[in-house]
Amino acid sequence: MGHTAPEHPGGAGNSPCPYGSNRRPCYGTGAVLKKIVHALLALIVGISGVLTLAVVCSTAAEAQVVFPPPGSKVNTGPAMGENNNGGDNLPDIGSPASTTITTSDEYRLGAQIMRSLREQKAIMEDPEVTEYLQTLGQRLAAQAPDTNQHFTFFPVNEGTINAFALPGGFIGVNYGTVLASRNESELAGVIGHEVAHVTQRHMARTFHAQSSQGIAQTAAILAAVLIGAMIGGGDAMEGAIAIAQGAAAQQQVNFTRANEYEADRVGIGFVAGAGFDPNGMATFFEAMSRHDGLAGQYVPEMIQSHPVNSNRIAEARGRAAQYDHPRTNPDSATYECIRERLRVLTMPKDPGVAERYAQDTKNFKGTLGQRYGYALALMQAGKNQDAAKILSDLVNEHENLTLLHSALAQAEVDGGLENDGIATFAKANALFPRNVPLTVRYAQALMKAGRPKEAHTLLLDLFNNETPTPDQIQLTALAASAAGDTGDAYYYMSEYHLATGDLQLALQQLQLALAAPNLTSVQRQRFQARQDEIRDFLVSNRIRKVSAQQGGR
Q: Please, which residues bridge with residue 170 across strands?
């Protein structure tokens, strides 16, 4: 079918800039993504200053069409995501005369940037970390009065301290930010600030005030800077960033000072409402300002021109004092584990990592996080049976933590105790049905054990109820293929291409699905309906584009 399995289905991958327990943020090659994101967001504001680049890159937007966002009638398919309801009339994103950006417009722009980030492996594809950030982020977003906003929280594979809000409710958090936070309330403060940027629609307000370009051209410029900077390097990178920063300079600021202070004030309310210490934002500000070279670079990169100063810290503390909060606010056990998980996953694979954990816990039992991190380090070193002993004790002590059950089962499977590992997965799945990380790991273990049909059934049950990531859709396609269900395998690969923005490839996979042997009538109807849906969307998209071009003459 012309596809391959992800290189690291569950791992974060090796970072070029590992972040140790006592290390400051690192700025080697990791600084590239920081500059790129800053440039991307600068372009959103200073877009009118780069018309020449828009002409050069206009074909980039045409090559990747963003399928309708959540809220439209077009859905993600019967077996792969949520059914969405809304109007048929999709917003015109190509007209230069359009100066108002709708929520659907924002989603499309954000989705296109996300796809570019994913293509460059900038997004950390780790189910456990993603679930934690999504859970924490939704807990904060639930405090907002507008419950219709769709949020997607994702980890970024960078050790620098950074977080950013993209249009459409996409919020990225560098793994370095999680490691730099000293408690969960500080991390909540960072994410709460970004949630506030979205709920207050600062991006849309900036567009309305300053943009004279259509969103399609804007997305083309963003994609061009992202791809050119990450692939071209050297002069190409510096040139792209210089254009973006020059455009931003013409508009004087990326986000106004008022927007930043508003995001602080609103974000602190979200933090307090979610049950965290509202002082977390101010203490994180203070910690960042104390780092040499970090003053003025607090996340997100958008506010680099507005340094964290004593006034901002004082206002954050004053706002926090208006809220009642517990005198003691212990971190969640999951936060503790996720920090250590990130620490291990982003370090070079070296047996010395496990030895350091062993030394740290030599004279005492160790914290939950340290013991979990030690077990993960042992697994990376190939000492799975030793890891399983630690994880078995942790599961008995903390039965409600799904990531412990999953790690134990993985250690057993990889340690040669395949039947024990599958049994551990089955027991955990009964306790925590449709938990995304657990189910994904369970399916991977079943496929490894030569039981792809069970894996396929498990994934279908999960993703009929939860929205999958592109990697998870691809895993479902691989399970279907291994189980001998050729039609479904092609169908899920079409969904994968839809999720990554390539509608033409999605149509090709659907054509192959319809030509597969032994289809049931239900499968044939489903595949045909999806094919018609995509074709109708492409036709309507071309009509809108022609109308916009004619109207702009």
A: 152, 166
Q: Which amino acid is at 151?
A: F
21-59 b/e (C-beta count within 10 Å ≥ 16 → b): eeeebbeeebebbbbbbbbbbbbbbbbebbeebbeebee
Which letter does DSSP use for residue 72 in this model? B
- Residues in contact with 206: Cβ distance below 8 Å, sequence separation at least 6, in sequence order: 44, 45, 255, 259
**What is the C-alpha to C-alpha distance for residues 366 and 371, in angstroms, rounded to an integer?**
6
Classify residue 254 by its DSSP letter.
Answer: S
Residue 236: Cβ within 10 Å count: 14
The per-residue pLDDT for 22 is 35
Alpha carbon distance 369, 249 (integer Å): 45
- Domains observed in the chain: 31-320 (no CATH), 332-432 (1.25.40), 447-553 (1.25.40)
How many CB atoms within 10 Å of residue 341? 24
Instruction: Round to whole Å and give the CA distance between 293 and 288.
Output: 9
Give residue 209's pLDDT.
54
Which pLDDT score is estimated for 552?
Answer: 58
* CB atoms near residue 72 (< 10 Å): 19
Tell whether omega for the bond before 127 is within 30 degrees of 0, i.e. cis: no
Please report the pLDDT score of residue 550 as a whole number: 74
- Mean pLDDT of residues grouped by 10 in the chain (553 residues)? 37 34 36 48 39 31 48 40 34 37 79 87 95 97 85 94 89 95 95 92 65 50 47 44 47 60 90 92 81 43 48 80 73 96 90 81 80 95 95 97 98 97 98 96 97 96 90 96 96 93 92 96 96 92 79 62
Within 10 angstroms of residue 404's Cβ, the number of other Cβ atoms is 27
Phi, psi of 76 (to 5 degrees): -95, 10
CA triple 464-470-476, angle to 5 deg: 55
Supply φ then ψ for residue 166, to 5 degrees.
Answer: -95, 165
| Integer Cα distance of 154 and 11 in angstroms | 14
Tokens of 195: 């949630």
